[in-house]
Amino acid sequence: MLHRSVIITVLLLLVLVFFSLPVEAETLCHYAGPDISPEFVKLTNFTVIGPANLKEGDTITVNFTLENFGQVDLTLPKREFLRLPNGRMV
After folding, report:
1. Phi, psi angles (nearest 5°) of residue 10
2. Rounded to whole angstroms, how far apart are CA atoms 69 and 40?
3. Beta-carbon contacts of residue 7 (< 8 Å; ≥ 6 apart)
4. Which of 1, 31, 32, 76 suits 61 as a labelling partner, its CA being 20 to 30 A distant?
């Protein structure tokens, strides 16, 4: 019985070590901003993180901050196109 519990403990430790290994991701794009739209929405800290060599099926993470910089309340549409810092629309 002791032998089986030692094996289970070692396997659990190996699983924990495996899942704690860092993921190889790097910053693919970063734009500190600010960039202010005609509606006075301020974009800052736009960052794209993911694998250096993107392949089909890979996942990227996009982070950014939007702030209503105007004097009025603003309702964002349900679907919006985004202009990247290089001017490209997505």
Report:
1. -65, -40
2. 5
3. none
4. 76
In sequence order, the β-bridge partners of residue 30 are 47
What does pTM read for this prediction?
0.56
Among 51, 48, 46, 78, which Cα is nearest to 65's? 46
Q: How many residues does the chain have?
A: 90
Could you read off the pLDDT of 4-24 as tens digits, one per residue? 666 777 677 666 665 554 557
Would you list the domain boundaries of the chain? 23-73
Longest dimension (CA), the chain: 71
| Chain segment 36-81, per-residue pLDDT in tens | 888 888 999 999 999 988 888 888 889 999 888 887 887 766 655 5
Q: How many angstroms separate the CA atoms of 75 and 41, rounded?
A: 11
Q: How far apart are CA 80 and CA 90, in angstroms?
A: 9
